[in-house]
């Protein structure tokens, strides 16, 4: 089987992919496009051959039963009987063309069934095919024409054992039964195709949801990498810049700066290994990824102080461990990014970190630094830190504001929800 058909099998309902031989050719063409002949006509399946042969035998059986009745029909000459049988035989043979020309065959059967009693079975088979394969407007026109010819047929060739009106009623009932059967088969096929379309739409939506989940996961990991690594790498940059600008610094300061650089590089590598481990594991949860909460804020401030920053912490939260993990993690990341920005853009200034709140009142966080003094060394950055902080606060259901203070410094203020 070609690659095209294999791909198309994957889009069809799995329960039908292995049972194509029991499906009608028209349905197979809808489920598996380009599976027919080079000219575009679908190939007959095993089921089609069985159904076509059964309809041919049914039409022939009706014709043979009618042949016996021809001998008892009064006023019918032998020549007319031979013509009737020839037309009936041609009509039965034409049943094999019902799939290729359903409308043409049904239209031709209207006059044929008017002049030939043995063509009645073929006429019913053509009407059934029209009901299955073509829109209702074709069926309405051909079916109405067939019903209108029945009174004329029974007037020309009355049934010897039945009244005139009874013959018309039986013929109309038989036509309606065949049409109803064909419409039932058509509705079942349309239902199957609609289920196929719904399955394809569901697969497409599931694929889109999976892609969106992957994109959101990648964005979350990217934010995590920025928050974790930017803090460490800023320490490296600041202390490396200090060594560059003060090559004559005392040995103790040089040793302390080198120690901070070494420790920050080691911790950055550790954090990077943890994040890459999450990527390799393809785990949907956050296991193995650095996830500090508000409890770790003291350690963050101590780390910044060890790096040479002047940081004052005003923690007015009675129990930091009681803060929800998602809220505490967001507050920690905001404080971490704000301290990183203060270290880059206002080195040597005093920074005040304030956090307060209670269940039901929300959590308020503020990081403020004094205006920088002297020339500030240029530290490259992406400029996306404050945008990421705003996004984090919004996703957590809170707000974040930032901007210069009246004294010339800079302040980042966040308010996060803390439900009871």
Return Rg in Å: 42 Å
Domain count, please report it.
2
Shape: rod-shaped
N/C terminus separation: 63 Å
Beta-strand percentage range: 5-15%
Low-confidence stretches: 1-18, 282-289
Number of helices: 13
- The class by helix and strand makeup works out as alpha+beta
Mean pLDDT: 76
Q: Classify the oligomer.
A: single chain
Compute the number of strand runs: 5
Helix content: 55-70%
- Strand-and-helix sequence, N→C? HHHHHHHHHHHEHEEHEE
Description:
- It comes from Streptomyces ardesiacus.
- One of its GO terms (molecular function) is kinase activity.
- Keywords: ATP-binding, Kinase, Membrane, Nucleotide-binding, Phosphoprotein, Transferase, Transmembrane, Transmembrane helix, Two-component regulatory system.
- Residues 218-282 form the Signal transduction histidine kinase subgroup 3 dimerisation and phosphoacceptor domain.
- This protein has helices at residues 3-11, 14-17, 25-31, 46-72, 78-94, 102-115, 120-133, 136-156, 164-245, 251-281, 297-306, 325-345, 385-395; strands at residues 310-316, 350-358, 362-369, 399-404, 410-416.
- The protein starts with a helix and ends with a strand.
- The chain is built from 13 helices and 5 strands.
- It has 420 residues and is of the alpha+beta class.
- It folds into 2 domains: 3-205, no CATH class; 294-420, Histidine kinase-like ATPase, C-terminal domain (Heat Shock Protein 90), CATH 3.30.565.10.
